User: What shape does this take?
Amino acid sequence: MGVVGAIAKHLDTFIGPGVMLLFPLYASLRAIESPSTLDDQQWLTYWIIYSFITLFELSFWKILVWLPFWSYLKLVFCLWLVLPIFNGGAYIYENWVRKYVKIGGRVNGNYSEDQRKVLQMMSLDARKSVVQYVDKYGWEAVERAIRAAERETKKH
Assistant: This one.
C-alpha cells in the first residue's frame, strides 16, 4: 500500500480538522471584525450545519461506523460549505433555512420587495419603530431620512 496509499486512505484525517475546524474558526474571527454582515451569515450558518452534522454523528455512530465512505462524504460536504468559491453555508441559509426561520417574523403590509428586504434586515424593535413611522409619514419620509443621514456621513 505504501505511503501514498496510507495518505489516501486517511485523507479525511489529515485534511478534515483544517477544513472543518481551523479554517472556519479563522474565517469566523475575520467575519466578526469585518463591517459586512454577509460573511457573518456564511459562518454562522456553517457552524449551525456543522453542529447538526456532529449531533447526527453522535446519535448514529453505530450505523456510521459501518459506512466507510461517511468521513469522505462529510469532508466533501464541509469543503462545499467552507470554500469561498462555493459559499455553501450562505447558499443553504438563503435557499432553505431563511424560508422557515424568521426570528423577527415576516414583514406584512403593502411594501415593495426592496422595502421588505430593508425592513427584514432590522432588529424587531427597530422594525416596529420604522413601520410605525412609515404608517404615519409614508415610505418617502424614510427615504428622505436615509438620504439626509448619507449626506451627514459624507460631511464627516
Q: What stands out?
A: The longest helix spans residues 11-33. The chain is about 80% helix and 0% strand. The radius of gyration is 22 Å. The chain has a mean pLDDT of 81.
